[in-house]
Design brief:
The protein is of the alpha+beta class and 179 residues long. It has six helices and nine strands; from the N terminus they run αβααβββαβαβαβββ. It has a three-stranded antiparallel sheet.
């Protein structure tokens, strides 16, 4: 079983196109594991997928993208569906980071960090993760430092994504500093 490929398929289904898989996510992004498995089994590639495969996919993933609780599964973050997935407000660490390309920095410093096609802006808990994210679009990305403690205290809501990712609706430019 190619767990990385399965993870990408499940991410696409849960984060971007649940309707293509005939899945109905609740307001927190959860769907029945059995419903997801049944949908995946309608394809030749995943006709033998099991709950055990999904559990191993989560266990072996370096980036914790999914969770299973009480026979339901969801993606932690990255949703682009029209219905916004509700997240619980959490107190963030003091500092967070965001990696981006040089092409975006002028606009970001003028308008702030906006979610674009996603539901939330993704922030990294450490510099290395921010660098890896930024490197997807620029071989030498710009890293922004966010004083998350001050932003939270000013009323900006932060949401926990996973141990490396935090989410925010948007961040104004005055909360951003180029590292």
């Amino acid at each position: 079983m190619d767990y990385l490929k399965l993870s990408k398929e499940v991410s696409y289904a849960l984060r971007h196109a649940p309707w293509e898989y005939e899945l109905e996510l609740d307001e927190n992004g959860w769907v029945s594991v059995n419903q997801l498995i049944d949908s995946l089994r309608n394809t030749d590639e995943w006709k033998n997928v099991t709950l055990g495969d999904l559990e191993k996919m989560i266990e072996f993933s370096e980036k914790k993208r999914h969770e299973i609780v009480n026979d339901n599964i969801r993606a932690f973050y990255g949703h682009s569906t029209a219905t916004k997935i509700q997240k619980e407000i959490k107190i963030p660490p003091d500092l967070l980071y965001h990696g981006t390309s040089h092409n975006n920095i002028k606009s970001i410093m003028e308008y702030g960090l906006l979610p674009g096609s996603r539901q939330y802006v993704h922030l990294s808990q450490d510099l290395e993760t921010a660098y890896q994210v930024g490197k997807r679009r620029d071989s030498k990305p710009v890293i922004l430092k966010i004083d998350a403690k001050a932003a939270f205290e000013s009323g900006i809501r932060f949401y926990y994504g996973n141990e490396k990712v935090w989410l925010v609706d948007a961040l104004p430019p005055q909360m951003l500093e180029v590292c």
